[in-house]
Amino acid sequence: MAVKRITANRIDFAYLELGDGPLALLTHGFPMSPATYRYLMPALADAGYRAVAPYLRGFAPSAQPPDGGFAIADLAADVNGLHEALGGDGDAVLIGHDFSVPAALGAAGTEADRWSKLVLCDVPPFEVFGPMVLTPRGTDALSHFWFFQTAAAEQVVAADDLAYIDWIYRKFTAAGFDATEDLKHAKDALRGPENLAAALALYRTTFAPDRLGTPEWLQEHAAVWGAPPTRPTLNLFGSEDPSFQITDETLAAIVEGLPEGSHAEVVQGVGHAGLVERPAEVNSLILRFLAGEL
């Protein structure tokens, strides 16, 4: 797929596109790229969607934001801006992975009429996310959140052709997964010093050590992505993902906070990247949900 470009929310975005029909906007996380959706895009196109996967602000070859903003609210504004620029309508669906889950919830929370359904991959809604992160297990499992706050992070992550990214993939995917293709695209998006700085800025803004966990931090994030979505939502997780321990009780709590027609499920045998670790199964779940069959 050729890389295309479009201006949205005052940023020049690069994106991949496949298919015709209602917009399906697919937003990636860290340390990922639109390649996360290389299996889902053809499946969506075959199902009658126009699948569009942009590179996040600051990830090459998308441009840096002119105001230097990397808050969740900025990413949410990008999502709705892309919907507008791409000519989306109320039949559009929004699929977010990893860091783009809060962005998707924020976008749908502020302009719900743009989206008919949401798919959230590997991160739970804020009311579940916050308490799980701020535990001994959570702070250990998500150690990169805290390491990225340090002045050494740029040097360490960039060393040895971004070997830290190899480590991230090994930690957060199931044993035996071959990440070669994903690593190539992820590193291309982050190899420039300005691009790596942009990715780290996502964490430095969202998890700033002088604010994380304070009442002000909770209020700020709840205001952006804490409201329950009003559109049917699919929330998917991997059984081998060390990020979050998703039990039956956790799934029930997630679904209880979602609107009618929603579903949450743990995919067995995969880590934090089920979209590429077990694409046939994950694609089937997503397509069944979009068709109203879950």
Strand content: 15-25%
Unreliable sequence segments: none
Quote the average pLDDT. Answer: 97
- What is the tally of beta strands? 8
- CA radius of gyration is 17 Å
- In whole angstroms, the N-to-C terminal distance is 31 Å
- Count up the domains: 1
Q: How many strands, which pairing sense, and closed or not: the largest β-sheet?
A: 8 strands, mixed
CATH H level, superfamily name: Alpha/Beta hydrolase fold, catalytic domain
Question: Helical residue percent?
Answer: 40-55%
Structure characterization notes:
There is one protein chain. The chain has a single domain, classed as Rossmann fold. The mean pLDDT is 97. It is 45% helix and 16% strand. The protein has helices spanning 40-46, 72-85, 100-110, 126-133, 136-141, 143-147, 153-172, 180-190, 193-206, 215-225, 248-256, 274-277, 279-290, and strands at residues 4-8, 11-18, 23-27, 50-54, 92-97, 115-121, 233-238, 263-267. Strand 1 and strand 2 form a beta hairpin. With 294 residues, it is an alpha/beta fold. It contains 13 helices and eight strands. The chain starts with a strand and ends with a helix. The protein has an eight-stranded mixed sheet with strand order 1-2-4-3-5-6-7-8, with helices on both faces.
Task: List the keywords.
single chain; 294 residues; alpha/beta; Rossmann fold; 13 helices; 8 strands; globular
